[in-house]
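Review form for a predicted model. The reviewer records the input and the model, then writes brief findings.
Reviewer: anonymous (R2)
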Amino acid sequence: MANDYYKTLGVSKDASDAEIKSAYRKLAREWHPDVAKDKPNAEQKFKEINEAYQVLSDAQKRSQYDQFGKAGFQGGASGGAGFDPFSGFGSQGGSGPFQWSYQTSGGAQGSEDPFDIFEQVFGFRGFGGQRKGRNLRYSLSIDFEDSIKGFEQTVSVDGHKLKVKLPPGVRPGTQVKFAGKGENPSKNLEPGDLFIVIDINPHSEFARQGEDIFSLQTINIAQASLGASVNVKTIDTKSATGFTEKKVKIPSGTQPATQIRLKGFGMPNPKGFGRGDHYITIKVEVPKKLTREQKQALENLW
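Model under review:
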């Protein structure tokens, strides 16, 4: 796919929504596979145009693209400078801007069906008439623990019994495709496809970005000053609960907001390529009340 969505649509980075839609309409009509003059390249070009429009026509996606680039929609980054994993902690936004999708039965990675986007804007799928039934999309929410260990369940959707099987480390926004299970308008048309879109319930103690996870660990002044070993909750794909505890060393002189990295203790990659990292942000708890002896001990430190 093209590297720059703005160049794909031929608009500037400060283009208005109306300018973006107008550019898309013009290019989509030109490169629609039914009418394009350059037939060999039409399908690929049509997909590029629709991918660009899918992102730039959505205010939130466009903002993420402007900040992170295309890698922000491919799970390619992992906590760069300035990233605050707790800005959306405990909310659905805790997973950060990174999204990806996959298809079952050996299907390739991909985003929304380009003909769906074309139909939303133009009201029809092709210049030669409707090619197939509409694609249908349904949301399936799973617990954070299920996203660690993997998930397998049969669900009923529109009269279909569908087996949804998700790998350990599945990401929010993953789409599972069931070919031919969408709208079936008539015997003369091919039925559409059905997509199950995965939504992962937020966890109160963890935030996620790609395969990396983030958590807070509270320690007291003495532990921060003198150093200590503390038990930290982290994920465990082999545990029945999805979690375990790991002893982590806190160096002496640890400052508030210090980040400790546990390499390889993050989420499993859904394609089986290892695991991400676990980043622990230290929070130093300052007591509100001290005994006379505690005050004296602190004063003697300085």
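Findings: The first strand starts at residue 136 and ends at 142.
Further findings: The helical segments are 5-9, 17-31, 39-56, 59-68, 114-122, 144-149, 221-226, 292-301.
Recommendation: see findings above.
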